[in-house]
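> @MW can you paste both from yesterday?
MW: sure, first one:
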Amino acid sequence: MFYQVEDLATQKQQGSGVGLALTKELVQLLNGTIEVSSKPGAGTNFSLAFPITREAKVQEGELIPTAESAALAAVSPEISKVPAAPAAQASLAGSGQANAGLPTLLIVEDNADVRLYLTACLGTLYHLLLAKDGQEGIELAIDEVPDLIVSDVMMPVKDGFALCETLKNDERTSHIPIVLLTAKADFDSKITGLRKGADAYLPKPFEQEELLVHLEQLLILRKKLQVTYRNLAAADQASASEAPEIENVFIQKLRQEVLAHIAEEDFGIVHLQRALGISRTQLHNKIKALTGQSTTEFIRLIRLNKARELLLTTDLNISEVGYEVGIGNPAYFSRIYAETYGESPRQTRK
């Protein structure tokens, strides 16, 4: 079992116990035994015994595994299948363009061994960003707006609870699902994490498959919510019970800003990010996470929904409706309208 402490603030952290867990798995892999004897106040002794055999066979061209690779493979057989590239490309400042196209996952963990293990577990499934403490994790989450966050609880500078509370109350990052991993597995700590906004709370040691399933399900839930947010953005059709209040407010703010300038053909991403006071990356990643659309597609959806409303409630001709919603090319307006609603503007009017 991993080493646990009651309170990181009052005790010096000496380790997470990962080394002992790896040792146990390695001993079992080599058909050995491990025993412990301990006396309170006196100390603890670990005894390891290995059988001496001459049965190992190395085929021609076969690589002999190192102790490190064998230990990691023992903890999780899947690690031996993980290419070295993702782990090498990921860094404490982020992993650049590695694994572009995959969901982005931020790992916040102060223990280098655990970071390495999580990178090996997740590196082929996600584009990874790495942070070594809670404060660095908060800053990286705000700058990059990842799709998911996996964070330790007991860390220097700011712990996982502070990270969770900060990000869940920030409009730029409130939507990001957060999974807390910690050796503090008692009931009160778990409740504290959930009250801070954590979407899942897993005690260490954790099963790799359990973590992967949690992350997968959180992404599936996010995709289901995207339909609600798109409806809210297009026509204000979602109720507060269907969408978290902070996300509801954010989408409504975006929608009202676009509607206020809907006749301006040049109104776009730059104007929207300036109005909200956030960066282009933050705006794009937030809208993409909430609606599954790019910022350009999001703005166009609001324009077209307004156009549909005008076609049904006014006597403006089709070209005039296009001008009213900031689309000055009638042919382009008719084409994208038909692509969105499955019928031409003329058919809608009938």
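MW: second:
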Amino acid sequence: MCISTIKNHLSRLTKLGLVATIFASPMSGAADKLVIESWRNDDAKIWNDVIIPAFNKQHPDINVVFSPTPPADYNSALQAKLQAGTAGDLITCRPFDTSLALYKKGNLEKLNELEGMNNFPAVAKTAWSTDEGDDVFCLPMASVIHGFIYNKEIFKDLGLSVPKTETEFFKVLENIKENSRYVPLVMGTADQWEAATMGFQNVGPNYWKGEDGRAALISGDAKLTDPEYVQVWEHMAKWGPFMGRGYQAQKYADSQNLFTLGRGAIYPAGSWDITTFNDQAEFEFGAFPPPTPDGQKTCYISDHTDIGIGLNAASSQKESARTFLNWMAGPEFAELYANSLPGFFPLANHKVSIKDPVAKEFLSWRNQCEQTIRNSYQILSRGTPNMENQLWNVSVQVLNGTMDPADAGKEVESGLKAWYPPHQ
């Protein structure tokens, strides 16, 4: 080959190299892409307009995409994506067993060494830790608090004060029933879950003494036939006369509509209802914690670990995902999330300024009362029959007046005894 031919080849290779470099440069500088799987499809605007832009101010090189699935489809859709290898990099985690199962299958990365985990107390990590507490697999995001939301205008018109004890609570309900056209207690039993979630798990912690009672149930030292559980259903059995005509056919959305239309006085609530009522109610509303049994000085609230976020073990963007998780563990995310979604309370140790007055009221109970979580969520609903589902069923029957409170305790205890050794 002559020298001129060699020079021509070198010249062509040099040009091709330059062209390749030119086309490769944008790819090498492209932002990493992180996809978040979530069931909170109603949060998309907040993530896209508030949370992700705030993160990108510090990390413009990481492109975050919020990709939600409707809540009812989330578990099955996520399982299918994980099996197919198409799931996002970050997985929004339900509390306890659902996410624990994903971790045991190898779908979620262990996060013990994630620096941001140091910002969370042990109780916040319980919902996303192994039973022994050795490994944590999701970053805690937020909890929800149970209590009662009330129409301040109705209370003012009737000269009512916020009840603090069980006796005061039923006196207020009786007053509303006798002296007004309003439904005293707005809740239905058609969807079942409200009976357990906003009934049993709402007022119950005051009777079984929060975490001590929950731990005793897990260890087998306490039974659901014990007085502290039967008394909860006895309390709930007195709700029926105050729940309005046809409450047995009333669904969750019906209850929300009834309250926001100003036709009901008190709504057994989760703090997640605040946003709905802010958007729809045209009256001022407030909140009060579950009434305590007469003579009891210590109050207990259900401050339930509700939502976390984990790292897909198959993600190809683990470094960027950890960067995002560490940012989520910081004070900026806590402040943004709490004020963008009133009623969802950060679990990190940061001091957060809550702007919404009703959310602030819910949060203030942490300083007044002992906190616990729903007692059916850790360990006790793994077998058949499922304790959570049993609580739905018996609580509905108690509210409907078709089951005696003592029989409710016997039925759930019998179900637990069928598969759970500490109760055998």
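> thanks! Residues 1-30 have pLDDT under 50 and may be disordered.
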